[in-house]
Amino acid sequence: MSFISLKNVTVDIPIYNSQSRSLKKTFMGLASGGRIGLSEKGFSIVRSLSNINLEIGDGERVGLLGPNGAGKSTLLRVLGGAYIPTSGEAVIGGKVGSLIDVSLGIDSESTGIENIYLRAALLQIPTRIVDQQLDSIIDFTELGEFINMPVRTYSSGMHMRLAFAVSTMIRPEILLMDEWLSVGDQNFQKKAEQRLNDLIKSSSILVIASHSRQLIEKCCTRVVWLENGKIKAEGIPQKICSEYFG
């Protein structure tokens, strides 16, 4: 059984190269509602999350709503293990897979095929699995002979198709996504959406951050509304979306 348990999770991000003790920083602290402050050593601190309490159980699809800077991406990174809480406790039960940055690990000087293996290694996908699925991955990308050329020769759309194809090889119990991915032309997007739907169906828990009301209401069983690093409200999608978008 997969689960997520966050208890009083706070995340402070230090900013080391700023001029901390200045009138400007004082005003910034006031304007941000206290989210930008000073540490005991004098450097700036941004409080990205503040006392987050959240329980997510097996089978749930949770959408994260909130304006830019509300803490959605930070929360996803805590769930993925990229950020360690400054205080509080984050317990994650289950194998986590992240589609937050599908281009992570792509090397522009390596070929498409070489990058498939590089990205798969970062995702901890065994080489034997890549060997078995290589032909279908290449087929899916629709890159043709470009698969044997350096990625620096690719267009941005080709780059994203390659990154998307290998990133969606994962079969995690807990799937983390930051907005729905748009890759390629309309025909390819249909293929990509089907691949994502298959991935979502195979996962036990989905947590997705989005600005799309349609996506949240379609895919999620619960919504968490974040604002200024805190949970402002949570509940069923129709209720929270009405309050947030209304």
Short précis:
It contains eight helices and ten strands. It has helices spanning 23-31, 72-80, 112-122, 127-141, 156-167, 186-202, 213-219, 237-245, and strands spanning 3-15, 36-38, 44-56, 61-65, 87-93, 96-99, 174-178, 205-209, 222-227, 230-235. The model has no long low-confidence stretch (mean pLDDT 89).
The strand order across the widest sheet is 6-7-8-4-9-10
What is Rg?
A: 20 Å
What is the N-to-C succession of helices and strands?
Answer: EHEEEHEEHHHEHEHEEH
Question: What is the CATH architecture term of the largest domain?
Answer: 3-Layer(aba) Sandwich
User: Sheet bearing the most strands, described?
Assistant: 6 strands, mixed
Strand content: 25-35%
The low-confidence runs, each spanning 5 or more residues with pLDDT under 50, are none
Rough outline: globular
Q: Mean of residue pLDDT?
A: 89
Helix count, DSSP H or I runs of 4 or more residues: 8
Distance from N terminus to C terminus (CA atoms, Å) equals: 36 Å
CATH superfamily of the largest domain: P-loop containing nucleotide triphosphate hydrolases
Just give the CATH class of the largest domain. Answer: Alpha Beta
CATH topology of the largest domain, by name, is: Rossmann fold
Helix content: 25-40%
Question: How many distinct domains?
Answer: 2
